[in-house]
């Protein structure tokens, strides 16, 4: 099974786009494409390599050319000899990895330059001093214990099936080199204040920020605040981006920002989630970000945009990025095309089906999670991963909402964790516990429901959010990953039956609940994934199951219901 993009992949240079659009430099070298690889049982450097692997596709994926799983206790090795372009001479050279799953050690010309733990976030190393005669022999060693460790793993499971997917390992995002001056911009922080933004450099540097079409602004002590007289606000219907160039004495980078505000305001009896000062209905989909030919890695840069636009054509304005951190390209496309993102933290810790799924589904939910998942290594790993994820993604205006824990997976001491999380970012909504095992310290009342009649009424204390529901299945023959198993929440025999079932669910339960406090609804899900056949598109993205004629009137009805509620309150007031 594969998508329409499979045949378009240039195996000598897959995913050629610049991988960091909010801190872009002109002088860089993409290292995607063929590398040597080996899988061993020893931590010692192999004497021989087995063949070629196409980076950045994991060895378990079809596009890698390997189609082999890395087992616990095995070592995955990569090697590539790189000749530096002449333009790199005399400058610092940084080696960047978008993500390597799970634990990586990197050598350049036999000098160890960096080690990194965590499979979903980028890391880098200054390799200037390890370069020999303009060459870099890059060697990477990877181990991945998937769900047999306390490291982050998302929806990967050693024994896939149901809601758990094929595990992957190794390099799965772009690898690249960049040339930088002696003193360079290591990072940018872009903080949105609603009607203004503050841009700061790491380390603090003097310079100039040129913003289209606003003009030039001086960067003093590494910081500048930009407050347009008539700000052009970003929203899904008008995703306006301000592009800027930041120049210091030695360095120059391209970036962008947007202006948008988020707030919780009480309108009548119920608190509402507000975008740009007005109550807004967040109409979304769960998005797993899996691909049949690349697993966690999209086959082409156009893949993200096509997924986003397909869902926008159905009237959706939000994607809940489920327990995965995507490459920066995904968030850039959401910024550019106008798709709100609710971002989950990547889970670790234990999962128990009976405790974390069966009992909550029938209404038996453990309320006190102080002692849940008490392994301190696991807790510390989660905190570090969450902090790194927020730091990596917080510049993207599309991200409006953080989900810390989902359905008890690795959840612990949620009230205290939420307090800590607010020190990372106070500018966005925080959903401490999506689904169940709910605590008191959270911005929203977040619920999941797949079975029984939806009865949605807010308590007037927090905005009511239905963060998962639906999951109806329709098997499209010829587009099924596993012909023997289907996972979902109510089977529909035909396209017509699926459309009617989804429409009835919205018509009877979701739209009427808006006046009773409902602020958001996240349907499961964008596409089928392996055994899960509950997507609005097939796993190969070749068939969109839901008709626009069905969904667009519902999308309009949700916003109309929100506007009617607000208008009614304003009239009374």
Write a structural description.
- The protein is an alpha+beta fold.
- It has three domains: 6-180, Jelly Rolls (Sandwich), CATH 2.60.120; 187-250; 284-572, TIM Barrel (Alpha-Beta Barrel).
- It is 17% helix and 29% strand.
- It has seven helices and 30 strands.
- It has an eight-stranded parallel beta sheet. A six-stranded antiparallel beta sheet has the order 3-2-4-10-7-8, with no helix packed on it.
- The relative contact order is 0.11.
- The mean pLDDT is 94.
Write the layout of secondary structure elements.
Elements: E1 28-30, E2 33-40, E3 51-55, E4 75-83, E5 92-97, E6 100-101, E7 103-108, E8 111-117, E9 123-126, E10 135-143, E11 170-171, E12 175-180, E13 187-192, E14 197-202, E15 207-211, E16 215-219, E17 223-226, E18 242-248, E19 252-257, E20 262-267, E21 270-275, E22 278-279, E23 282-287, H1 302-312, E24 318-321, H2 328-337, E25 340-344, H3 353-361, H4 376-393, E26 399-406, H5 414-421, E27 429-434, E28 445-449, E29 464-470, H6 495-513, E30 518-524, H7 548-572
Helix pairs in contact: 1-2, 6-7
Principal-axis shape equals globular
Helix count, DSSP H or I runs of 4 or more residues: 7
The computed structural class is alpha+beta
> Using only CA atoms, what is the Rg?
24 Å
Question: What are the salient characteristics of this protein?
Answer:
7 helices; 573 residues; alpha+beta; 3 domains; eight-stranded parallel beta sheet; Jelly Rolls; six-stranded antiparallel beta sheet; single chain; 17% helix; TIM Barrel
């Amino acid at each position: 099974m594969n998508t329409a993009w499979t045949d378009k992949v240039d195996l000598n240079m897959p995913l050629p786009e610049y991988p960091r659009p909010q801190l872009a430099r002109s002088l860089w070298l993409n290292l995607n494409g063929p590398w040597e690889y080996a899988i061993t049982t020893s931590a010692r450097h192999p004497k021989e390599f087995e063949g070629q692997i196409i980076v950045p596709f994991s060895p378990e994926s079809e596009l890698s050319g390997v189609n082999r799983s890395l087992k616990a206790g095995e070592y995955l090795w990569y090697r590539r000899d790189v000749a530096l372009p002449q333009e790199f001479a005399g400058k610092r050279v940084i080696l960047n990895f978008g993500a390597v799953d799970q634990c990586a050690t990197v050598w350049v010309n036999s000098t160890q330059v960096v080690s990194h733990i965590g499979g979903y976030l980028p890391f880098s190393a200054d390799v200037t001093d390890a370069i020999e005669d303009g060459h870099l022999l890059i060697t990477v060693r990877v181990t991945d214990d998937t769900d047999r460790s306390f490291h982050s793993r998302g929806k990967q499971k050693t024994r896939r099936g149901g809601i758990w997917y094929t595990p992957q390992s190794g390099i799965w995002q772009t690898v690249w080199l960049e040339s930088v001056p002696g003193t360079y911009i290591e990072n940018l922080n872009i903080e949105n204040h609603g009607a203004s933004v503050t841009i700061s450099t790491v380390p603090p540097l003097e310079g100039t920020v040129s913003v289209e079409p606003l003009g030039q602004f001086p960067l003093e002590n590494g910081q500048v605040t930009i407050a347009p007289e008539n700000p052009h606000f970003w929203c899904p219907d008008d995703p306006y981006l301000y592009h800027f160039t930041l120049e210091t004495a030695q360095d120059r980078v391209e970036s962008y920002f947007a202006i948008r505000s988020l707030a919780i305001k009480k309108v009548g009896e119920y608190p509402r989630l507000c975008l740009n000062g007005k109550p807004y209905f967040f109409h979304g989909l769960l998005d797993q970000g899996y691909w049949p030919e690349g697993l966690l890695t999209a086959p082409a840069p156009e893949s993200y945009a096509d997924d986003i636009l397909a869902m926008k054509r159905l009237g959706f304005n939000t994607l809940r990025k489920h327990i995965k951190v995507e490459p920066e390209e995904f968030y850039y496309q959401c910024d550019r095309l106008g798709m709100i993102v609710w971002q989950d933290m990547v889970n670790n810790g234990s999962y128990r089906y009976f405790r974390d799924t069966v009992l909550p589904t029938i209404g038996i939910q453990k309320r006190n999670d102080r002692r849940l998942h008490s392994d301190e290594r696991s807790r510390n790993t989660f905190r570090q991963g969450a902090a790194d994820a927020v730091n990596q993604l917080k510049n993207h205006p599309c991200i409006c909402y953080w989900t810390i824990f989902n359905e008890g997976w690795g959840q612990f001491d949620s009230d205290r964790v939420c307090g800590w999380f607010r020190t990372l970012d106070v500018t966005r909504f925080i959903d401490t516990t999506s689904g169940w095992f709910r605590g008191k310290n959270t911005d929203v009342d977040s619920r999941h429901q797949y079975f029984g009649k939806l009865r949605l009424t807010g308590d007037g204390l927090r905005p009511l959010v239905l963060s998962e529901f639906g999951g109806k299945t329709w098997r499209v023959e010829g587009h099924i990953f596993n012909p023997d198993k289907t996972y979902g929440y109510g089977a529909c025999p035909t396209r017509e039956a699926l459309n009617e079932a989804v429409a009835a669910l919205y018509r009877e339960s979701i739209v009427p609940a808006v006046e009773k406090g409902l602020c958001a609804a996240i349907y499961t899900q964008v596409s089928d994934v392996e055994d899960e056949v509950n997507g609005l598109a097939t796993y190969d993205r070749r068939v969109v199951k839901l008709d626009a004629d069905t969904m667009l009137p519902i999308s309009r009805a949700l916003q109309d219901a929100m506007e009617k509620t607000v208008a009614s309150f304003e009239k009374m007031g």
